User: What shape does this take?
Amino acid sequence: MTVINSALDTAGSDYRANRETMLAKLDELTAEHAKALAGGGPKYVERHRKRGKLLARERIELLLDPDTPFLELSPLAAWGSEYPVGGSLVTGVGVVEGVECLITANDPTVRGGASNPWSLKKALRANDIALANRLPCISLVESGGADLPSQKEIFIPGGAIFRDLTRLSAAGIPTVAVVFGNSTAGGAYVPGMSDHVIMVKERAKVFLGGPPLVKMATGEESDDESLGGAEMHARVSGLADYFAVDEPDALRQARRVVARLNHRKAYGDPPLAEPPKYAADELLGIVPGDLKTPFDPREVIARIVDASDFDEFKPLYGTSLTTGWAALHGYPIGILANAQGVLFSAESQKAAQFIQLANQRDIPLLFLHNTTGYMVGKEYEQGGIIKHGAMMINAVSNSRVPHLSVLMGASYGAGHYGMCGRAYDPRFLFAWPSAKSAVMGPQQLAGVLSIVARQSAAAKGQPYDDEADAALRAMVEQQIESESLPMFLSGRLYDDGVIDPRDTRTVLGLCLSAIHTAPYEGARGGFGVFRM
Ligand code: COA
Assistant: This one.
């Protein structure tokens, strides 16, 4: 074994300061998560309960195997937007009858569970995860359909929800809909497109048009039950496969459906793993509050991989990027972690080689981000930094082993791309509260804008107002800083959630287990042309 020898001074003042900064950020995160958990607030939660209904997360809890975890995804969706935090939808991965499933649940306490643009993004992301990892998809439905005032943002792209359901089915990935309430108009196609449908007595309302619309369209007098009640669909239309007497019965029946899916994981469970030699709690004190100060990612690796055992690849070459092999909860992984922030030519080439090796060996990759991007400057341009960065981006783009990304600190510029940022389709991507991501750092961006404005004024022969420039720089800096923060980025679904660093090993273990539901094979060739 090659156990990492930690040099973290847990008694030192740096460690204490880092830890305090991280804990303060975690407090802010908890407050934002609480908003998602509160749904539509006490008034609507109480009304929902008075109707004898369970909340979205209570439904999920009853669906899951007892005492098993639920990896909730994108809880901060819609953060910073005009819509409530959480996007009126709960999504995540959990175990039902021993089968890892992708679960979505409308939150009917938030504007009737209607879908706004962020709910849609969140739902589509959940479908992508189900498809990539072959996870059966269970929809717990109770929604007012499209959020009508924002229909222009969702009506046309929203068709993808129903398309995805049937594509999942076509790919042999089971889909189950449990209808607890309203599922009308477009929403009727969620049960309509699902493989298995359960409806709750006197609660489910599944029709293309409700009584008022029918009256307007054809003059026919009708009522909810005869148009779209559970009993009608179970006995007459045949849309419901199972009739549930109440919500717990519906969830019990959903569990029976999953038990009979015969859905098998592509890989057996890995051997029982030895925990890291160092405490996860110490992950709080590694990342400095000021990301300009570098930190050693081996200290992070030592606290997340099995037995802190890490075989470093090319440790003497391209030392600003640490690469190496480890296992996490028994799953073999290759790790790429930024060490000094900047990616030079050697780091880029090392990464490209390492990614190819992982593909030859069918080993998933974990990217631990703390990069300010690829190095700029005459020496580096002349040394071919564009070619070498392109090699790394080529390798990561065409790699076919599953990727996981964690933004620990900075994730700026094309460095975010080379390290498998969101656009490079990592199977899962999480951020720590200490992360920041943008095209470049706020000061650099404000400085570039100022230089460009000064040159433009000079070219026109106009005087340059230095006072206005200072004010503009300060404003831009502040704006870019706030747009680089993890809650803002998570709100826009640029990650799958902001996590407590202490949970990293658990979260990644759950992801790796979900990933191993689907078979994968590394790319043996099929990379783009590597520009030498
Ligand atoms: N778009 C925007 N807001 C919606 C909405 C929708 N589709 N559906 C409900 N809301 C809002 C309501 O206006 C209400 O807001 P308020 O509390 O500020 O007054 C809030 O959500 C709760 O709705 P309410 O009707 O009080 O809840 P309910 O639980 O009694 O009924 C529904 C829920 C979904 C059955 C009912 O609101 C409804 O029929 N909505 C319209 C459904 C529809 O036709 N959607 C279009 C389908 S494509």
Q: What stands out?
A: The mean pLDDT is 96. The CA atoms of residues 344 and 375 lie 6 Å apart. The first helix runs from residue 13 to 37. Residues 442-483 form one domain.
